[in-house]
Write a structure and sequence with these properties.
With 185 residues, the protein is mainly α. It is built from 5 helices and 2 strands, in the order αβαβααα. Helix 3 packs across helix 4 (123-160).
Length: 185
């Protein structure tokens, strides 16, 4: 199995990139491979010096086809309950990007408990990141709540003690002066 994985690695290193004919010339053509169908196509005729076409010779060995480079079969996991059905000797888990943070943490904890390998991320680092983020978010929420409570207390004190701020005092004095000056004699 290890030898076949090494063979596959060597083959993939030598394999050319298969892009569509005339892709660099025409902007609207995408890079996805399409077989050339034209009668005069140099790539279809396999002329020397032209781009290569996909062929069975570029395939990887059948026994390691679709396996991770560690030799484990890749299983996509979307919840912690999916982890329990995995065979740790021959399968490893992959977490898609669409899985949320809380479920991701649950999956990683379950995988660590059952000693199952996570193939697409470093489980310990990722768990630490998530825990740090959650704890900092909670601290931030607590601090925000404390600030709100302080503001509410200050508002209540101001309602009870109608002490005016400097700006409010200046405005009141201006109004008083205006009233006195505009008073008709």
């Amino acid at each position: 199995m290890k030898r076949l994985l090494e063979v596959r690695k060597e083959l993939k290193e030598r394999k050319p990139v298969f892009i569509r004919q005339d892709n660099p010339k025409r902007m609207k053509l995408n890079y996805k491979w399409r077989k050339p169908k034209g009668i005069h196509s140099k790539i279809r005729h396999k002329f020397k010096g032209r781009r290569k076409m996909p062929s069975p010779g570029y395939k990887s060995p059948r026994k390691v086809k679709g396996l991770h480079h560690s030799g484990l079969k890749m299983i996509h996991v979307f919840s912690a309950s999916d982890v329990s059905g995995i065979k740790k000797e021959s399968e490893g888990i992959i977490m898609p990007k669409s899985v949320g943070m809380r479920k991701r943490l649950g999956i990683l904890e379950k995988a660590k408990e059952l000693n199952i390998m996570v193939l697409n991320i470093n489980a310990d680092e990722h768990m630490a990141k998530i825990k740090d983020f959650v704890s900092s978010k909670r601290k931030g929420q607590k601090a925000a709540k404390k600030e709100e409570v302080k503001e509410l207390k200050e508002q209540k004190k101001q309602e009870k003690n109608p002490e005016l701020s400097d700006e409010q005092k200046k405005e009141e004095e201006k109004k008083e002066k205006n009233r006195i000056l505009t008073k008709k004699v």
